Amino acid sequence: MRCSSSFLYNVYTLMSVCPSCPAGMSPPGSFCPWAYGLGLLLVLLALLTGGCATSENATSSPEEPRAPRALLAPADSTVRTVQLYRGEDERALPVLSMQGGAPLTLEFDLLVDDGRPLSVYFIHADRTWRRDLTPSQYMQSFASDRLLDYRFSRSTEVPYVHYTYEFPNDSIGFTVSGNYIVRVTEQGNRDAVLFERPFYVSEQEAAGDLELEALRQPGTARAPLRPTLRFTPPDDLQGNPYGYTVCFARDVMLEAPRCSTRPLLNAQPQLGFELDREAAFAPEIPALELDLSNLRTSIRIARVDRQRRPPRVVLDPDRARVLEGEPAAVGGPSVIRDALRGVSDGELSGDYVDVQFALVPPDAVPVQGAVRLNGPVAPEGVPMQWDAQAEHYTATLRIKQGLHAYRYETTDAGLQRVLQRASLRYARQYLTFVYYRDARVGTDRLLQVQTARPPR
What pTM was computed for the model? Predict the structure, then answer.
């Protein structure tokens, strides 16, 4: 006889921690005999009414192939080159540890002539990015802070103001782990949003072993990878195998992980979580590298027009059948300071340029579906237009000097197959996020974030 994991978890929560036990019987949050008896009654009713299936006909609790994306406020048109990373490494993931260590750094530009103080707010969300708690429930001190560190660009064709902010700090601290959103607004006006970005606060209390199994399939050069995580829950959660969700992501796709809520119980107290075969990560079309640290002709840059303001950089067209660019070394957000090491204060001296991308489809003819430029240079995606004279798709973006990554995506099945055949590779890294739905705090705690490299 077997019940669904979600049913058992709900009953367990009721039986073990009762927030509303009748007055005088037990204090909130402690063991409640009344709730324990009610939980046993619910299990008995489930057995009698078929709410729990026998082992012969039980079906697995459903997987969540993809978790919802973080719904962020649209960015203001003046906002450019938002970076959010841990410590001093621009490539580092925006994961803050409650165990201590390096803070997160937020950097961005406003394409304006005059700088001004701004405000920053912090919003907690559950694992589905539903904004759930009030600031008093997760902030250690203040709910917002002032953003006063801003400097003007130096001798650039396009003037801008560069902002830098580090947290936690003396004014900002977090008491609850989980998914978070940082919101930057006009000073003192929470609703005058300039942009939002997601980040994570992790307890780092459930380290485990992440394995990547190659699911071999006939006729495929690279098999899909199915991740499996095995970990031991922290001491305060021992004895309850339910309420966990483990999400797996790859490279920069942190906002669209694939999740499992079904624990493997064959090695308790250690728990295991894996994706269904259908949800395994297939090899992907990699992001391509764009190096704008030096504005001069190169293997990737066909020409630079410095007579325009700002300068115009025309890239050699990418050909769908053979994507000749190298896989992006950044593997994530744009890198500015490290890419401009030979330039004093590269975050202030780096110029903005108009970059023209081009993709040549098979036989140099337009396809039926839409073609978009995507990746860190265009997080929300930019439509590409067909240029009949040049016989390729094109799009132009204003990008800051540095090291960037981009990729193409399309709704045309034929072009998609061509792009995949030309360049499929494994992602550079895979990540796991271990969540626990804790009734005591009313949200999903983030117990652990860790990474693993794929097989070569």
Answer: 0.82
